[in-house]
Write a structure and sequence with these properties.
Elements (H helix, E strand, L loop, with lengths): L8 E4 L5 H12 L3 E4 L4 H14 L4 E3 L7 H14 L5 E4 L14 H29 L1 E6 L12 H21 L4 E8 L5 H14 L3 H10 L9 H12 L10 E4 L8
Parallel strand pairs: 1-2, 1-4, 2-3, 4-5, 5-6, 6-7
Helix pairs in contact: 1-2, 1-8, 3-4, 4-5, 6-7
This protein binds NADP nicotinamide-adenine-dinucleotide phosphate.
The site of NADP nicotinamide-adenine-dinucleotide phosphate (NAP) has 29 residues, from helix 1 and helix 6.
Length: about 260
């Protein structure tokens, strides 16, 4: 299938590693011009060089802390300067810290709100004038917690639902501009984030991280964690003109892990 992504401009947030990097890699190999961003400048430039070597489109990068409004404004300006108007916005971020309700204080609630919800609101606001010109795609990366709350991860359970609601509302509001908005929810994909959460559980229980992984994999019908590329393929399809009648939906990429519909 021709995804018709040639020469589209994609801004992929939080893309120096993990899911964001895998999404950026696939989009750039499909002919998109891709803007990478994250905070660590050295890791960002290294990811840019790695992706550019295999890309058919241009790969640029610009550092940004997505919890800072001024950084987002500068990121969109840099995207215009280096690549042109944005056709595709992939909203992604680092994950919030683990913990139950009684572990989280006011300041940490505020930080997670800024990282995992307000950043997406601001990114969409900043990219909207571009997207309204020609139509486009907004894809929000969330978590399996939109279907099934994850024990010990209350900040994700709360703010991913906010992002899900934002995506569904905007699919309705922005359809008039041919902007399609979708949510994609990873289950357990092998990245540093997954390792961090498994290590947290292992430390709490006094067992090895390998034991935690083995137990978690047994609960996944496909019997293993996913690879970032497997997640990125779904996002790449949704980002493409080939997904022209898919909007307002939330798609799990979880190997069947979530038990409900
Ligand atoms: N992997 C999974 O199975 C899974 C499952 C459910 C949900 N998720 C969620 O999906 C998202 C991506 O996960 P991942 O596994 O790819 O995580 P990851 O491997 O830890 O990568 C996170 C990326 O976000 C960047 N980042 C973090 N804070 C940022 C900030 N304030 N401003 C800009 N960039 C920032 C990081 O770069 P810098 O640190 O250099 O900024 C890095 O590029 C997270 O929200 C995670 O919770 C993942």
């Amino acid at each position: 299938m021709d995804l018709q992504l040639q020469d589209k401009v994609a801004l992929v947030v939080a893309s120096s590693k993990g899911l964001g990097k895998a999404i950026a890699a696939q989009l750039s190999q499909e002919g998109c011009h891709v803007m990478l961003t994250s905070r660590d400048v050295a890791r960002l430039e290294s990811a840019r060089q790695e992706l550019q070597a295999k890309a058919t489109g241009k790969v640029a990068c610009h550092p940004c802390d997505i919890t800072k409004a001024a950084d987002i404004t500068a990121l969109v300006a840099a995207t215009h300067e280096k690549l042109g108007a944005i056709d595709i916005l992939i909203n992604n971020a680092g994950g919030p810290p683990g913990g139950n309700f009684e572990d989280i204080d006011d300041a940490v609630w505020q930080q997670a709100f800024e990282l995992n919800l307000l950043s997406c609101v601001r990114m969409i606001d900043a990219a909207l004038p571009d997207l309204k010109q020609k139509g486009g795609r907004i894809i929000n990366v969330t978590s399996s917690s939109i279907k099934q709350p994850i024990p010990g991860l209350i900040l994700s359970n709360v703010f991913r639902m906010g992002l899900l609601g934002l995506g569904k509302s905007l699919a309705n509001e922005l359809a008039q501009y041919n902007i399609l908005v979708n949510t994609v929810a990873p289950g357990r994909i092998s990245t540093d984030r997954t390792l961090y959460l498994d290590q947290l559980k292992a430390d709490k229980r006094g067992v090895s991280v390998e034991q935690v992984e083995t137990e978690a994999q047994k609960l996944i019908p496909l019997g293993r964690y996913g690879e970032p590329e497997e997640f990125a393929r779904m996002v790449t399809f949704l980002a493409s003109p080939a997904s022209s009648y898919v909007s307002g939906t939330a798609i799990m990429v979880d190997g069947g892990m979530v038990k409900g519909f």
